[in-house]
Amino acid sequence: MTLEAENLRAAMRAWSAGVTVVTATHEGHTHGMTVNSFTSISLDPALITISLKTGSRTQELVAASRAFGLTILSTEQAAISDVFAGRSTETEDRFAGLQVETLVTGSPLITGGLAWLDCRVVESYHAGMNTLFIAEVVSAREFGTGQPLIYHDRKYWQLSQLL
Questions:
Q1: Pairing with 12, which of 2, 27, 37, 77 sits 20 to 30 Å away (CA)?
Q2: Whole-angstrom Cα distance, residue 147 to residue 163?
Q3: Are 20 and 34 in contact (CB under 8 A)?
Q4: What is the largest CA-CA distance in the chain?
Q5: CA angle (26 as vertex; 48, 121 as ends), nearest 5
Q6: Would you say 102 and 119 are in contact if contact means Cβ atoms under 8 Å apart?
Q7: Pick from 20, 111, 114, 32: nearest CA to 65
Q8: Which residues have a Cβ under 8 Å from the Cβ of 125 and sit 6 or more positions away?
Q9: pLDDT tens across 104-162, in order?
Q10: For the chain, what are the domain ranges?
């Protein structure tokens, strides 16, 4: 018996996750996408994992550059999440109007996020329709204020709404 994709999508709507934007740059090309498939896997060494759709612009840039930036979004950044998720067709350049900074790898990090992780890829694996990247965090910055943007049941939430 084969699992129907829509059944899995419906079940996954019950999972709540923080919202991040993964960004990468390579040979003058920069792109990013909204991602909630992000996990910390080790503090020593500092390792995280992300999963990106194989063949997407961001996945190709991460694979080529072997680096990426990850911005953990705040509740005030739901519109940014929508732009980087491709929900806003008005913006061809996803970075238009945003302030970004870089740390070590040169990957852009979005100002206003709750935290930044600057990462170098150490391993990558094909996993179905996605590429799973394991990366070393080479620099991190936490800003200490604000609430995280949460995604649950195809909507954005705040922590106070979940209690």
A1: 77
A2: 14
A3: yes
A4: 49
A5: 20
A6: no
A7: 32
A8: 131, 132, 134
A9: 999 999 999 999 999 999 999 999 999 999 999 999 999 977 899 999 888 988 887 55
A10: 18-162
Task: State the Cα–Cα distance between residues 137 and 99, nearest whole angstrom.
Answer: 22
Tokens of 134: 């394991």
Residue 115's DSSP bridge partners are 72, 142
By C-alpha distance, which of 43, 78, 46, 49 is closest to 62?
A: 49
Alpha helices in 2-65 (DSSP H): 5-12, 57-65
- Whether the CB-CB separation of 107 and 67 falls below 8 Å is answered with yes
Distance CA 21, CA 43 (A): 21
Rg (alpha carbons) of the chain, rounded to whole number? 16
Q: What number of CA atoms fall less than 13 Å from residue 16's CA on the CB side?
A: 10
